Amino acid sequence: MSVAQIKNLQRRLANLESEAVDEVNRACGHELWQSLGFDALDSLEDPDRRSRANYYYGQLQAVRELKEVVG
User: Fold this and answer.
1) What are the tens digits of pLDDT across the range 1-24?
2) Of the candidates 32, 31, 26, which has an alpha carbon nearest to the alpha carbon of residue 49?
3) How is residue 30 annotated by DSSP?
């Protein structure tokens, strides 16, 4: 990969990470999940919100793993 491709990929991953964090915050209604971790998502009573939070949390984990690999 060229330097420009890596920079573009890093920018897209940062955008996806930001979107995922925003969506989990929206689904949870707070930012406490960032310190409590995955358990905070499972305590959501509304199944739709819990499902959305889990989906975006999974996306967030995948993005962070890719960011580690890309650098």
Assistant:
1) 789 999 999 999 999 999 999 999
2) 26
3) S
Residue 27 amino acid letter:
A
Residue whose structure tokens are 């890093």: 10
Q: Please state the φ and ψ torsions of residue 29, each to the nearest 5 degrees.
A: 85, 5
Q: Considering the entire predicted model, what is its pTM?
A: 0.86
The answer to whether 41 and 28 have CB atoms below 8 angstroms apart is yes
Domain that holds residue 31: 14-70
Instruction: List, for residues 52-61, the tens digit of each pLDDT value.
Output: 999 999 999 9
Closest listed residue to residue 14, CA positions, set 51, 56, 67: 67
Is there a domain that residue 9 lies in? Answer: no
Looking at the 3D structure of the chain, how many domains does it have? 1
Q: Is residue 23 part of a domain?
A: yes
Residue 34, H or E segment: helix 33-36
> What tokens does 1 get?
């990969």
